[in-house]
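Help needed: design a sequence for this.
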């Protein structure tokens, strides 16, 4: 491999920038792009200046195209420059930072979801349901419980009855982070073991949407009223950046897995589950109902290393990268230090608030995680973990 020494010819000079760019765009795995950028200084500059890492990230996950910019946030306030920085130097430094940010995000997108400590149920709390038959006994909150019976009583959400079986229903959830990678969604329809014939109230098809709420942060209340947050879950309050294909749901009493065609970047932390049409009528009133016993959104949070600021109603977002958070234990993340920068403070305060809500969910009984994950402990494991491609291929 040629090196940047003396007049040694460079492959980029031999083939020219256009052909070189076409070659680099053929690299479909971030580890390959990383290795190429590490071969020579000129290759590194070429990769950085042409935004190949960001382009690859958007190819792997088109939702990343809604990221208007990416900013690296240091823990300590940067010292004033010794001498005025030229616009060229500032631009080169910003381009290098953006390369590091998108390299890290690419690594998260291709990380093996089956690896140890990789995937959890990302649901933080319920936002609302399109209808509920008998509130609060059949509220959406019951779908956070992994069992269909709690204290010897049935636990499930039920839609209102419909004369037309084609009427869709929706369940909307807030995830444990404003930026998550989601791999699959699991749903278990409810088997009415207390009714004659023990009918299963599944839906005909399911579809999933992901995006962010356009309402001011913090205005999404928990489900506490009989209307199950009808005003909040109105579709005009959300911008959906991903819509899945439709999946058939089996009329079976089992936790059914709906694997997405690719990892999805949920920017904004909201998932809507669309239940497209009922298949089971209730004998007592001859109306269609859809009932869900349990729901999971399986993936992983990318916070606090990555955070997101939604910048406008059009869905454009600013990606914030906190590399110093990657090596911190949970106790250190919970602390503020006098030398920490104001932006670090603000972003970590937001993360602590979300984490506090997650812990409260566990303490109040909504321990939705797999038994082997260990409840609260997994919040610390997964949200503080890195997402590099491998131990040998760390993105700089």
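Sure. Designed sequence:
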């Amino acid at each position: 491999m040629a090196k940047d020494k003396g007049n040694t010819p460079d492959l980029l000079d031999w083939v020219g920038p256009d052909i070189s760019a076409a070659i680099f765009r053929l690299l479909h795995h971030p580890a390959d792009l990383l290795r190429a950028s590490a071969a020579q200084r000129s290759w590194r500059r070429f990769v950085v200046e042409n935004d190949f890492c960001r382009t690859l990230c958007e190819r792997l996950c088109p939702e990343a195209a809604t990221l208007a910019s990416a900013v690296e946030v240091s823990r300590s306030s940067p010292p004033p420059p010794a001498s005025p920085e030229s616009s060229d130097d500032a631009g080169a430094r910003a381009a290098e930072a953006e390369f590091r940010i998108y390299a890290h995000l690419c690594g998260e997108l291709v990380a093996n979801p089956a690896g140890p400590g990789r995937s959890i149920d990302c649901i933080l709390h319920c936002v609302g349901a399109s209808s509920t038959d008998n509130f609060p006994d059949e509220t959406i909150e019951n779908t956070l419980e992994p069992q269909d019976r709690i204290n010897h009583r049935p636990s499930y959400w039920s839609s209102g009855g419909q004369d037309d079986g084609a009427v869709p229903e929706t369940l909307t959830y807030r995830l444990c982070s404003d930026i998550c990678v989601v791999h699959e969604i699991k749903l278990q329809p409810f088997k009415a073991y207390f009714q004659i014939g023990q009918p299963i109230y599944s839906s005909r098809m399911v579809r999933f949407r992901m995006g962010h709420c356009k309402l001011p942060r913090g205005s999404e209340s928990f489900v506490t009223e009989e209307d199950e947050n009808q005003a909040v879950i109105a579709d005009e309050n959300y911008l959906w950046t991903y819509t899945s294909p439709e999946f058939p749901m089996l009329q079976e009493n089992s936790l059914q897995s709906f694997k997405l065609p690719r990892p999805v970047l949920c920017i904004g932390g909201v998932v809507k589950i669309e239940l497209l049409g009922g298949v089971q009528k209730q004998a007592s009133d001859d109306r269609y109902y859809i009932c869900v016993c349990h729901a999971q959104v399986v993936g992983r949070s990318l916070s606090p290393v990555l955070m997101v600021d939604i910048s406008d109603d059009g869905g454009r977002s600013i990606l914030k990268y906190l590399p110093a958070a990657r090596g911190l234990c949970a106790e250190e993340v919970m602390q503020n230090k006098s030398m920490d920068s104001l932006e670090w403070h603000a972003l970590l305060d937001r993360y602590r608030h979300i984490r506090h809500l997650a812990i409260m969910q566990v303490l109040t009984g909504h321990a939705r995680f797999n038994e082997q994950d260990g409840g609260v402990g997994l919040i610390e494991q997964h949200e503080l973990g890195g997402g590099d491609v491998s131990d040998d291929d760390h993105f700089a």
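The chain has a mean pLDDT of 83.
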